[in-house]
Amino acid sequence: MKNIITVLFLSSLLFGIPAMAGSGHEHDKDGGHSHVHKTINSEEAATIEQKSYKNGPEWVTTFKNDKISDVTKQTLYLFFSLDGHYIAANYTGN
After folding, report:
1. Which Pfam family is one of this chain's hits (predicted)?
2. Please, which contacts does 32-41 make with residues 24 or more away whose CB atoms are closer than 8 Å?
3. For labelling, which of 1, 55, 60, 94 has a CA lying 20 to 30 Å from the CA of 75?
C-alpha cells in the first residue's frame, strides 16, 4: 500500500497542470491601472459612510478635489471592508 501511494504521488509530480497564462498577458509598468491625481493628498475626506452592496456592507470614503480640471475625476471614492481592508477605488461610486 505504501508503494502504491508513493508511486501515485511521484507520478502526480510528473503530470502537473500547466499554467493557463499565454502570450500577450503582460501588465504595464504601473500595473495597468490609472493613478490618483497628486493634489488629492492635500484633501481631507468629504464623507465617510457605511453602505450596503451585494457582497455586504462597506465603508465608502469620498474625496472631493476642485483643483482637478477633469470634472469626472474630481470626486474619488475609496471602498473598505468593515474591518478596514482596502477593496477598491473609482470615480463613479459604484
Report:
1. DUF6488
2. 36/76, 36/89, 37/65, 37/67, 37/68, 37/73, 39/65, 39/67, 39/68, 40/65, 40/76
3. 55
As given in the structure block, the three cell numbers for residue 28 are 504595464
pLDDT tens digit sequence for 40-94 = 666 788 899 999 888 889 999 999 888 888 888 888 899 999 998 998 888 888 8
How far apart are alpha carbons 59 and 51 in whole angstroms?
6
**Where is 78: in which H helix or E strand?**
strand 75-80
Q: Which three cell numbers, joined as nine digits, stand for 54?
A: 451585494
Ramachandran sector of residue 32 (left: φ over 0; alpha: ψ -120 to 50; beta: rest): left
